[in-house]
C-alpha cells in the first residue's frame, strides 16, 4: 500500500486521484497540497484525506507519505521535485517534466543523485489500446517501423496558467506534443536516437503569445519518422489518434472521438446533465471509461508496483528529459525554419544505428519492387536489374 | 480484502481471476477447485493459490474462504450454490444462473433462505460503455425508451459441454441470450415486467441438438420491446453490439469488433503470435483492455464493495432468475411459434404499468405528428385534428 | 433516348428527376402531371419540361411520351398503371407497388396482359454498396446465406398522406419495410419462396392509426431468415443499414449515417445553410452523392437500358407483388400474433427447396463442430460421434 | 455528344473509359491510341471503338474526334498536348500535368496560345464527398480554414514506368501528392497564394531512386497550412483521407478504406473471385461505386458540359501548373532541408492577402481566450487584458 501526497487539486489532480483510489486499489492519498486553502479543503473532503495544507513542503515531508504525486502547473515542477529530493520521497510527476530540456535535465540529475524513485506520468503510453498496439509492434506484426504519428487537438486547456507562456513554458507543443512525442518515440524504439526536428508552429486563432497549432517531424537515427499534430484551436471535442506504418502492417488507434459509442439526443429529455464536450445535443461520442481508456489506471498500477518491487517504471524522468529535449528542438525549428538537431547531453540508448537495407532479391539478377495480382487475375511483378537498374514488369502466372 | 475460492479453472475462471487479481486489487484467490487435478494444479501455480482441490465442497468450506466464485458449466451451478448455502459463504455465479427458470428459482430461494450474499455475474451490464450509456438513459437523454436491442454472435464456444444440450441446458440463447436479455431489460427498466416473448430459433449450421442461431422479441408491460440476436454460426470474430431507441435519442454501442483500434498485418513480421480471432493476418480489430472493456473489473469491484458494505449488488440471483424465466419463454415460443407469456412466480418490480400517452398538443384542436425543415428551408408541420382525425400539412414559416 | 412523363412533383418525383436528368443522361422528362397546377408549373419550370398538366391521363397519353414514371401516393398507383395499360406506355412505379397484395396482383396482371414494360423502382437494390455486396454473395464469398437483415428508420415521412392509413395503405412497414424486404429477399435468393412471417408492430409515439415501429422475421423455404426493422420514431437522422450472415462470411452495409464523412460545426460560420437532417450543428454525417448512393442512378440506367434492349429489369411488378404479399402477411401477423403464411397466388421461383445439410465430416466416425486455435496456441477440435452423438474436445497439435 | 480520342489503354485509360461511357452518357470514345498494337486492339474491342492506332497523332487528328483524353505516362504528356494544339482539339489530361513546373508551364502556355479547351483531370476534387465538404466550407460551416490535410498512401503503382524517376519525373510526391495538394489548396482557397513548402521525403523501402514516402507542409499567404502525406510503402490497401480544420468546425473524409461497407470472408465459399486489394480473405472494405466515389463521373460530366457551354472547368492546365510548382518546391525542400518558396511565374489569384485578425472582444478591457462549461456545471471564461496582457479565469455563472 502506497501513502500518497498529492500536490495540486485541479483537473489533473482529481483525474489522478480517481484513478489511484478507483478499482479497490490498496493505495491512499493521505495529504493534499493546494495553493488555495479552499481548494485543499475541498479536495481533502472529496477524497477523505486526513491532511491538507497550503505549504507544499509540509505535504511532502509528512511522515506517513511515501510517494509524492506532482499535479501542478509546469513552472512549479522543479521546485516540487527538489523538495522530494531533500526529503527522499519517491516522486511521480505529471507531463511535461520541465518547461525545457535544461530544467528537465536538472530535475533528472537531482532525483538520480538523491537516489529516489522517479516516474514520469505519461499516461498515454499506458492507454490500453497503446499497450495492445505496442505489443503487436514489438512482436513484429508491422515489420520495421517507418513512421508513427500522434495527434492531439482540442479547443484549449481549462486553467489560465496554460495560456501564459512564462508559466507554462510554451503552448500546445509543450502541453500536447509531449504526449505525441513519447507515443511515437515508443513505437519507433526508445533506444533509437532522435536526431533532428522540423516544426511549423503558429498562433492562428487565440490572442496569446504561445502557439495554438503546430506540426512537427522528428527524424530518428534509423530513418524512421515521428510526427506530431497538436492544436488548441480544434473544434469538435478532443481528437486523440495515433497511426503507425511498418513494412508489414499498419495500426490506427482512436482514443476518444470514435471508440464504438455513439449517442444522439435532442436534449429534450428531462433532467439531462451536460457532457464535458463542445455540445450536449446532437450526435455525441462519449468514452466508456475515461480514467482507464486514457491509461491512468495502468500507469499508476505499474508505477506503484515498481516502487514496491524496486524496479524502474516504463517512464522515468530520463524519458521526460528526452521529450523535453525534442520539444526544445521543435521550438527552435519553428523559429529558425531549419531542421534542428536534438541536443541530448545524456543519451542512454543505442549509438550509431544505421538505416536497414530493404533490398529483396527476386532472382539472382533482380530486386523485387512489387508483386501484385492484377484486376484481370494475373500475377505480376515489377523488378529492377541489380546491375543496370532497369525496371520492368513481368507477368508470371 | 476478499479471500476467494474459485470453482472452475477454464476459460471464464481465468478471465475472472485476471480481473480479480489485476489492477492491484486487495482481493486474492486462495483456493481453486477443478474437476481434473492437473487443471487445478496449473491454475494454482499460475495464480499462486495456496490451496487446490478436486473436491468442490473442500474449496467452499475452506476456513479462509469468504467468497465463492462459480465459474463452472451450467449443469453444476445448482449443486455449487447449495454447498455455499450449507457453508454460509457469499456466492457469485457466472451466467446464466440456471439451465431454466425452475432451477434458477430454486437457487434464488436457497441463497435467500440461507441469508448469504448472492451476486449474478452478468459482466456486460458493468461494461464501461454500458454504464455510461445507462447513465444517459437514466438521466433522460433518450426520453422514453421504445426499443433496446443487443446482439452477441460469434463462431461458437470453446468447451465441449456447451454443445451438449443436456449439460448446457440449451444453445446460444442460453449461452449468449442471457447477456442480451439483461442488457436490454436494464435499458428498458428492471422494474418493468417482461410480459411475453416471441422467438425464432434454428440449428442452421452445426451438427448439434441445440439452436445455433436465434432472434427474440420481449414485450414489456409499458409497451417497450427488447430484442436479442444470438448465434454460434457468425463469421468474423465476436460481434457484440447494443442499440437503444428513445423518443428523444439513440445510442449505439460496439463492444468488440469496432472500438477504435484497427490493425493490418501481412503476417510476415518476425515472431508474431496469433490473436484469439478468426484470423491473424489482414485487417484485425483488437480490443484495448478486454477484461475492463467487457465489464469484469467494474463488476467484481461492485460485488466485493457490496459484500463489504452489506448492500445488494446491481445484479443478484433474482435478476438471474428473471433472465432464466424470459429464456424459458423464448424456448417455448421457438417451439409453439406463439408469443409465450413470461412465467414469473416471483416478481419484485412494478405492477400494472400502462403504456404512456404520447400525444403532443400542437394547438387546441390539433395534435402534432411531425415538425420539420423542408429542403427548401421552410418550416412545416404535419398535424392531426383531435375530433375529426384529419391529417394535414401546414407550412408555418 | 427516353421521353418521360413524370406523374407527381413531390419529394420523390424530384429525386427521380434529378437522377434521370443528371450525369448527362440522354433521357428527358417531357411532361409533368401534378394534382395542383402550381406544383406542375413549378416542376416544369425547374426541369424545363415543355408540357405540364393536372390531368393524369393527358400526361400519360402525350404522343411524345414513351415511358411513364409513377411518383404518386400509394393510393393512386393502381389508377395510374391502368391508364398506362390503356395507352400502352412503358411504366415504372415507385415503391410499394400496391397498398396490399391484391392491388399489386391486379396491377401486375394488367401490365402483363397489356404487354407493356413494367419496372418496380426499388432503388435500394441498386445502391452501389448493395450491388457490390450482392456480387460477393453470388460469387460465394459468404457461403450459404443464413440471415439477412435490413433496417430503415427515420423520424417520419414528409407528406401528410403517408400518415393516413387509408391513403397510404399502412404505416412504416409499407413505407420502409418494402425496401428492407426486397433487400433481404435478394440476398437470400429471389427464387427462394418466402414461407411465413412473424411481425411485431406498434404505434409507440405518433398520434396515428398506423404503426410507427415494427420488426418482422420472414422464413424462407431453404431455412434462411429475412429480418426487417422499420420505424418513423427514430431520432438522429435516417438509419439505413443492412447485414448479411453466411456460413463463410459477413457483410455490413451502412448507406447513410456513417459513410466516411464526418463534419462538426458550431453553426457560427457566416451564411451557413441547413442540411436536411435533425440538426445543423454539432457532429453531422452527410452523404456524398445521395442520388447515386441510394441507387437512383443505377436503377434508371438499368430500367432504360432494358426498355431499349427489350429485356426485363432486375425489378418488375412481379417483385413488387411478392413484396406486397409478404407485407400482407406481416400485417396479419402483427394482429394475430401468429406466424402467418405468405399467400402467393403467383409464384415463379423454385418449388420444394429443402434445407441444405451442413454436416462436415471430421473423420469416418465424427462430424466436426468447431476447430479453433486456443489462446495458448494449440489447435483444438470439438467433434461429435456420428452414432452415439457424444461431443468431445480433442487437442490435435 | 462528345467524340473522344483516348490516348493510352492502361489502368487509368480504362477507368476513364468506364466513367465516360457509363451511366448512359451521350459521349463515345471513337479512337484509341496505344503504343502496342495488341493493347490498342484489345481496348477498341472492349469499348467498341471504330478506330485504333499506334500512331498518337493519327488518333488526335482523326476528323471525327473533338476531345482528346490523355491517359499516358507523365513523360509523354507534353508531346501529346503539343499535338492537340497543332490540331486544335480540346484536351483533358491526367494528373500530374507535367513532370515539373517548367514542363507544365510550357503546356499551359501552348494550350492557351492555341485557344483550345484544356481540362486538368484531378478527379479527387470532383469526388462526391469532396464536393459536399467543399460546399460546406464555402458556406462558412467551418469558419476560417486553418489547416487542410490530405493523405494518399498505398502499396505502390501498377506500371513499371512509375518506378523509373526519369520517366515519371519523381516518386510518390508527384504520383500521389498532386492529388493531395489540389485537394488541400481547394479547401484553403484556390485564389490564395501558396508561399513556401517544407518537405521530408525518403526512400525507406523500395529499391528505387525516387522517394517512396513523403510528408509536406505548404504555407499559404493567409497563414493557412496545407499538408500532404504520401507513400508507396503503405500496407493495408489504399488509404485516402482528407481532414479540414476551421475556426468553427472540422471535416473528416474517408474515401476508401472505411466507407460504410465491411465484409468478412473465410475465402472458402465456392467460385470466389479476388478483389483488387492486399488480400481477399478476412475483413475487407470494398468501395460501393469506385468510378463515382473517386470523382470520375462528376469530373467528366463537368468537363464535357463546359466544352459544350464554352466555359472553363473547375480544373484547368493552370491548376495543374500551380500544383507542379508546389511539387517542385517540395522536391527542392526535401534536398535543401529548407522551407522553399513556391516559384510561380504566372499567378492569377489574389495578391497581398494578410493573416486575418482573430481577436474576439470579451468586454471593453479584455479579449476572450476560451469559454467553457466546467465538469461541475459552471460557465467559465479565460480572458486576456488588452493593455497588460494578463490572463485570468473567471467563473461567470
Automatic annotation (TrEMBL), chains A, B, C, D:
Keyword Coiled coil listed: no
Domain of life of the organism encoding this protein: Bacteria
Any Pfam family hit: GFO_IDH_MocA_C3
GO terms assigned for molecular function: nucleotide binding; oxidoreductase activity
Keyword Oxidoreductase belongs to the record: yes
SUPFAM superfamilies tied to this protein: Glyceraldehyde-3-phosphate dehydrogenase-like, C-terminal domain (SSF55347), NAD(P)-binding Rossmann-fold domains (SSF51735)
InterPro entries for this protein: Gfo/Idh/MocA-like_OxRdtase_N, GFO_IDH_MocA-like_dom, NAD(P)-bd_dom_sf
GO term, biological process aspect, one: NADPH regeneration
A Gene Ontology term for the protein's cellular component: cytoplasm
All copies of domain GFO/IDH/MocA-like oxidoreductase, residue ranges: 130-251
Alphabetic keyword roster: Oxidoreductase
Gfo/Idh/MocA-like oxidoreductase N-terminal domain sequence ranges: 3-115
Family: Belongs to the Gfo/Idh/MocA family.
Protein name, per record: Gfo/Idh/MocA family oxidoreductase
Amino acid at each position: 500500500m502506497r501513502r500518497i501526497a498529492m500536490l495540486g487539486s485541479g483537473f489533473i489532480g482529481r483525474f489522478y486521484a480517481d484513478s489511484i483510489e478507483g478499482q479497490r486499489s490498496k493505495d491512499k492519498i493521505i495529504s493534499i497540497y493546494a495553493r488555495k486553502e479552499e481548494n485543499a479543503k475541498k479536495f481533502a473532503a472529496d477524497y477523505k484525506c486526513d491532511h491538507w495544507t497550503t505549504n507544499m513542503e509540509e505535504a511532502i515531508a509528512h511522515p506517513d507519505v511515501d510517494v509524492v504525486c506532482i499535479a501542478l502547473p509546469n513552472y512549479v515542477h522543479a521546485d516540487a521535485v527538489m523538495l522530494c529530493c531533500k526529503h527522499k520521497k519517491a516522486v511521480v510527476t505529471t507531463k511535461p517534466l520541465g518547461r525545457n530540456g535544461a530544467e528537465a535535465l536538472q530535475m533528472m540529475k537531482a532525483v538520480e543523485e538523491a537516489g529516489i524513485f522517479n516516474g514520469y506520468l505519461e499516461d498515454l503510453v499506458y492507454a490500453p489500446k497503446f499497450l495492445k498496439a505496442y505489443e503487436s509492434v514489438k512482436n513484429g506484426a508491422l515489420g520495421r517501423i517507418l513512421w508513427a504519428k500522434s495527434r492531439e487537438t482540442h479547443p484549449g486547456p481549462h486553467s489560465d496558467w496554460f495560456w501564459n507562456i512564462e508559466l507554462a513554458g510554451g503552448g500546445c507543443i509543450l502541453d500536447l506534443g509531449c504526449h505525441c512525442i513519447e507515443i511515437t518515440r515508443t513505437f519507433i524504439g526508445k533506444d533509437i536516437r532522435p536526431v533532428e526536428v522540423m516544426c511549423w508552429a503558429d498562433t492562428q486563432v487565440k490572442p496569446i503569445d504561445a502557439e495554438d497549432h503546430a506540426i512537427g517531424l522528428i527524424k530518428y537515427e534509423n530513418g524512421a519518422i515521428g510526427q506530431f499534430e497538436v492544436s488548441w484551436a480544434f473544434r469538435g471535442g478532443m481528437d486523440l489518434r495515433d497511426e503507425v506504418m511498418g513494412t508489414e502492417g499498419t495500426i490506427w488507434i482512436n482514443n476518444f472521438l470514435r471508440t464504438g459509442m455513439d449517442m444522439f439526443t435532442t436534449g429534450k429529455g428531462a433532467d439531462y446533465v451536460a457532457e464535458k464536450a463542445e455540445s450536449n445535443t446532437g450526435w455525441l461520442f462519449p468514452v466508456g471509461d475515461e480514467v482507464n481508456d486514457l491509461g491512468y489506471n495502468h500507469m499508476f498500477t505499474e508505477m506503484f508496483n515498481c516502487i514496491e518491487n524496486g524496479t524502474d517504471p516504463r517512464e522515468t524522468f530520463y524519458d521526460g528529459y528526452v521529450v523535453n529535449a525534442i520539444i526544445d528542438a521543435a521550438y527552435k525549428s519553428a523559429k529558425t525554419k531549419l531542421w534542428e538537431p536534438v541536443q541530448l547531453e545524456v543519451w542512454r540508448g543505442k549509438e550509431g544505428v544505421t538505416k536497414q537495407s530493404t533490398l529483396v532479391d527476386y532472382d539472382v539478377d533482380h530486386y523485387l519492387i512489387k508483386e501484385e495480382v492484377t484486376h484481370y487475375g494475373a500475377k505480376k511483378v515489377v523488378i529492377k536489374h541489380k546491375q543496370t537498374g532497369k525496371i520492368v514488369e513481368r507477368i508470371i502466372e
